[in-house]
């Protein structure tokens, strides 16, 4: 605890230390460890999958002893474990009906196949005639008999043969004829598949939806007590089995599309095989796919040395699908578009090629309809096109091009693009099954969500880019990235199977034929070998069947033991696992904590789950949910973060950006970026920007401010919000709230709940974000700070990097000073006024340096909102960098070199000598009177004349007091005041030096701007010998007489200061501004009289100083009172 308190002690200096690489994974670099301490380090052996051989052998022996005909044998992992390992999912998943719960499979309960189900069979019509046109119907009797005779059956059937809809019906029809109890659960890899198939079967059997056949996806279910066939996602079944610790609630479990080998499917296979060998011997398991590696799955379920039987159900096809490749598109590929097989991706040329292909397909279809004599085919746009793309961004790119094609004036096809991916709602997904509007052809843009188990009847053409995006994790660094890869042949075959369901079809694979046939992988790499293992390790702990390596070692493709060890270490870091097992320290294992049970119950990354838990603890639950959903959606503004606050964060991190980054022009792109900075409200954080924009949108909807759809779209367009994404995010927020409510995670509404102020909420959110993602927020660089700073200042020619950008390729033969205004005008489009820009040219260089300076007038103008960003880098620098990223044109018109030099000479800007031009430098008058301290003046005594905040106050040296009194005496001479009256307001101009009253005395002032109103004319002035701003009536202004004209040439007698080596405390001032307490303390110090300054540095006419107070400094006092924290001076 002392170490923690010491870490958060802001009174101590922050020290820069080099952190050894690899500490997160438990490997400490030996070069930074003293020899005498090396003996205390725990050396971890890195191993691969050899460990799994012993585990698999033990499991094989169990399966060899399996007696399917004997009495049920209660295992030690049966009912006795269900209480010990009960999770927080009790209320989350409630698929099983109450009758099933009362009749768990045990010694006192008769086995399920002997149970009669007359009531259900008599209540609903059972037509045993099945569609004989489907290829799988030829194998109906063989399938039923094989399933009855074997515990596990592998069915391999081509796409479209009918296995997904028919096999469950064959089973329940057989049970009907035998009057036996039957309860079937069939998994699908995706929600849309489970929902659409359940509806299709209900329609075929004329059963009401949710009666005999139903579905459950996530928290959405349509089931009843009568339901005997349930289509669900893989995750739903997995959570049920983990909770129930048995397969006894089901007579048949059908695992469809097992070829996909995602983590949940592989872990589900582990669970099912373990239960088969222990407490659930009478449940039948059916594995199905069109592209399955049948032998591998058959051997995985080898029982008594006999592999599971394999049935092939693709003896015939109703319709043919013809394959075409990039080589076959030569007639439309007139630009010879090629792909780089070493770098998967989609080039703009490939998008254009697909548009050509769509036009050709549309023309072919229209010609076939024109020649057809069948009246049913007269609808020229009755067939649809399905395009497989790797991700949401690519779908958006393709959709934009299709919309542009629709809007073209040429005789082009009318297309109705429909997006299909996992982030849209189920109701939106169902739109793919609807007919296109009259006169339009439906074009479905899908990710691999449409790859399997979905039949869109009117799809005749499939265009496949043969790409996919896969999560890949480096378990040593725990870094996960979404990588674009070539799809496997199995994936491509599944995609081709979407055509040819009700008519002959075509598939166009946009890769060369030779590459597809000879180089593409047969099957994709299982997720268990490339994705984070945190969630499966937690599920293994919920099973309570031993250490995670003993469970995961049973996988078809076991992960490396080193990866499991690193995952366990990560789970211990985030608090999901304890460091001990039954009180004994273990490297390979740890008891699961309550937080770990919560993490295992949520469909989120463990760090996002931790974020939500911390949000609940700190009473910012809703914001945490929203921020977390931002992270996980992977990625609402139009440019290219479950208490109320915590809910927002988790959802925002789960979706793609709600901001629309990529505008139609570079200008709109920059405008969108600026709007996002405004949404961030000075935080500089995407999380806070999303949080604020989502809450504003939600609040306006609740108050009916966005009642009409047109008004909502106009609002979204104005503020660069991606309306569709923010609605998708809202659905995720609501679903996550429901899940948390089932876990009793609810926003506190009692009077005892914590009420955070806005500034407190900001710091609390930062704390929980840091706590959730520790230690993944440290950055490393190969350069030390000195080397990096030296390089940076060299590139910028000594200019302040926090305020300066530079251009290149400026011909140094030109007189740059002639084009200063043109260069300033470049920044007009990003709303940076020319008065805030200073342009410098480097002699003999092609660089042009642009420094953004403080404008005194805007700085004191509270009527306009100023864009703020955290840190010392000015917002204008962010804008300038965005201009470059948006590829805005930075071109200026220049004169001929010789004409330019001549013109500059006429203006007195340059002088020409010996054929070379040189700038005419203005001599500084009274340079010896400048009061800014030199490098030789380390300590000064004087008075603080005016305080804005601790980073801006003005100091009058004691040596200048007498001179200033003389100036004031001259200005306040009654004769001068009488003679200096202005004739009219027109005589007063901006920037003019004059005298104005302050504290009953006239003092030197500079005019900033005019303020006109109905009653009088006033001017805003800056008192150059005091540092404050004031508003003065025109009648009170005085000009300098000829006698006092020299006063306008004397520099100000004060200089600007800021406190060195400190900055506002984040705890007291989350917005980065000095607190009122700190500023009042400085004012109290100034009121005490004369103060002593110690000058640290002088930058841009601002002195960075320490204020000496007794034996310490005022800077240190602010740190001790926690009004400030120490920092380095970066310039």
Q: Find the CATH superfamily of the largest domain.
A: P-loop containing nucleotide triphosphate hydrolases
* Tally of distinct domains: 5
User: What's the average pLDDT?
Assistant: 81
The structure class reads alpha/beta
Structure notes:
It is an enzyme of class 3 (hydrolase). This is Probable ATP-dependent RNA helicase spindle-E. Residues 92-105 have a biased composition (Acidic residues). Residues 92-117 are annotated as: Disordered. Residues 356-544 form the Helicase C-terminal domain. The chain is α/β, with parallel strands linked by helices. It has 5 domains: 124-312, P-loop containing nucleotide triphosphate hydrolases (Rossmann fold, 3-Layer(aba) Sandwich); 321-371 and 380-525, 3-Layer(aba) Sandwich (Rossmann fold), CATH 3.40.50; 602-773, no CATH class; 786-919, no CATH class; 922-960 and 1053-1130, OB fold (Dihydrolipoamide Acetyltransferase, E2P). 34% of the residues lie in helices and 17% in strands. The protein is built from 37 helices and 35 strands. An 8-stranded mixed sheet has the order 4-3-5-2-6-7-1-8, sandwiched between helices. Strands 9-16-13-10-12-11 form a 6-stranded parallel sheet, sandwiched between helices. Helix 22 (621-632) crosses helix 27. It is elongated. The model is unreliable at 18-44, 70-113 and 634-655 (pLDDT under 50).
